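Example record for the data management plan.
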Amino acid sequence: MKKTALIYWPKKGNVENTAKKISTHFEPEGMDIFTISEIEAAKLANYDFLIFGGSTIGADNWEDTHTSKWHSFFEDLKTVNLQGKAAAIYGLGDQVLYPEHFVDAMAVIRDELTAAGAKVIGKWPVENYEHTDSKSVEGDHFIGLALDDDHQHDLSDERIRKWVDILKSELGF
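Corresponding structural encoding:
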């Protein structure tokens, strides 16, 4: 059985709720869930598969070195070799209020994971979304699962289920 770590931030709210929903699609003994402040980046080497989740928030929350939990985690990640590890990303955003930056944070997470050697899997189609732009789009797919629990909450559970099926297929689970 592949050992999976699901790491997310921020705590509470839609990102954490989504982490819990994703975890229900995996065997409990094969899944560990952490916030980014609960796991040391070096421990990621103990896992076969990594899932990261975040929300699109202001750039200052990603770049401010004094307050950003992500920044601290990414600094620690620079010392970790994730070569050969598969990783997937989910992101939450608001495509109506922020249509030109919808789930941009997934691209930030992807860049850090690939710099550490991980291979990002789990692309998700862009159809049926109402955003105008996203740094997390490549061609006709998001680089991971995009969710808008503010405006498309009724679609989230089915999207999660289908995305996990894609992940399991890509991983050979």
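Summary line stored alongside the record: The longest strand covers residues 49-55.
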